[in-house]
Amino acid sequence: MSATSSQLYYAELCRLTQARCGGLTSPDLVLRSLDFAPIEQWMRDGEWDAISDLLIREAQMLERAGAEVIALATNTMHKVADRIQDHLTVSLLHIAEATAASLVSKGHQRPGLIATKFTMEQSFYTGRLSANGLETLVPDVDTRDVVNGIIFDELCKGAVTAESRAIYMKVAADLAFDGADSLILGCTEVGLLLNECNTPLPVFDTTTIHCEAIIDAAFS
Fold first, then answer.
1. Which of 8, 25, 44, 91 has the most CB atoms less than 10 A away?
2. Among 170, 173, 206, which Cα is nearest to 191's?
3. Spatial CA neighbour of 148 closest among 75, 207, 82
4. Both 24 and 125 in a single domain?
5. Do 102 and 216 contact (CB within 8 A), yes or no?
6. Are residues 199 and 122 part of one domain?
7. Residue from 218, 170, 174 nearest 29 by CA
8. pLDDT band at 164 (very low <50, low <70, confident <90, very high)
9. Catalytic residue at 187?
10. Is 74 an active-site residue?
């Protein structure tokens, strides 16, 4: 949903398409990038109806433009995914469902989750994981505030610092200590700080997982 997230998604969709098809193939897609500033303020104010109404209109526009599959390039906005799907005739690919399927296929049961406070604390996301038999672990309240601040104050702006990377690495280590058997990078920008090389757990990057699901759906 942030400009950073949109760039990451587009680059990954292009990479996956080229890897699958070769040559000069690139994805035939319609991208709608929105001004994130008012949406972020609505999130702070709890104006989810306004967010839902906006995203429904935008998704319907994509469908009218010929999209056969629609995806939200964000984890947190899936809070209103069901409302959006109710107003579409094509499928909206849910990022939590794709992530759960990936975790289950690899035999994991207790993923740790690093994401925005909305995603870590509300059932719209963890409930989907639970419905797939997963027990999700999240950081403590104070740590969730720190994680959330780094996402909105830095990562959404494309800013990456060694200090924030060290903080996120400590959060991942703490989740492993608490019994997590895997780690969900549950905000599309978290992969700017964490990867398989700097965490003690198998990493499930939701941006990559979601993009793979989008490409699979498109080619099917």
1. 8
2. 206
3. 75
4. no
5. no
6. yes
7. 218
8. very high
9. yes
10. yes
